[in-house]
Design a protein that fits this description.
alpha/beta; four-stranded mixed β-sheet; two-stranded antiparallel ribbon; 6 helices; 33% helix; globular
Length: 201
């Protein structure tokens, strides 16, 4: 049975349960996200970089582990995107700054490392203003991200691409950054839940 497109909007914990229970595979969920990106993202411009070759390998490996009955992390096989401000090993990470246009880190930011260790599969990066310094999401490399509910409006910032991607069902969930509201504003603008944990938690 083909995966139900509504699964793109389920919570990450519900998606992870679906993978663990064999309701659908990690690869099927990833391909659902990719198909939605292909059809929706050209107008939305939320996802700016993808590494599908590696993500597909990781999803297939995640599915093999499910079939083998191995112990699985809480986010096992869940495909996610990451705000482009955060370093992701092997995937271009720019911070929205032209100086870092070709920057491909060889390590993950600590929060990216943590979600990977929990089983999540990082397959792309989302748009933001240069150096995360605005309440909208435009930069000279990738252009403007629009609000998924109204293309005449902004998705907020600086994690605007992140919020737009989740709201449009292009990513299971997102890791953004927030000092003065950069997760909370976009979540509000895009009609989703955003959380800023206390420092050190």
């Amino acid at each position: 049975m083909a995966i139900n497109e509504e699964a793109a909007f389920w919570s990450a914990t519900r998606q992870a349960k679906g993978i663990r229970d064999g309701e659908f595979s990690s690869r099927e969920l990833l391909e659902l996200m990719v198909s939605r990106i292909e059809s929706i993202n050209p107008k939305l411009n939320a996802v700016v970089t993808m590494d599908l070759e590696q993500a597909r390998v990781m999803a297939d490996s995640a599915d093999s582990r499910v079939l083998a009955g191995e112990d699985l992390g809480p986010l096992h096989g869940v495909p996610i995107t990451i705000k482009d401000a955060l370093e992701t090993s092997g995937i271009r990470s720019t911070g929205g700054a032209t100086e870092l246009h070709n920057h491909v880190p060889d390590r993950d930011a600590p929060v990216v490392k943590a979600v990977k260790e929990a089983g999540a599969i990082v397959f792309g990066k989302t748009n933001l203003p240069r150096w995360s310094g605005d309440i909208q999401s435009f930069n000279d490399m990738f252009g403007t991200t629009v609000n998924p509910w109204n293309s005449e409006r902004v998705p907020g910032g600086s994690s605007g691409g992140a919020a737009a991607a989740v709201s449009a069902g292009l990513s299971s969930f997102e890791i953004g950054t927030d000092i003065g509201g950069s997760v909370r504003f976009p979540a509000s603008f895009c009609g989703i839940y955003g959380h800023k944990p206390s420092f050190g938690v």
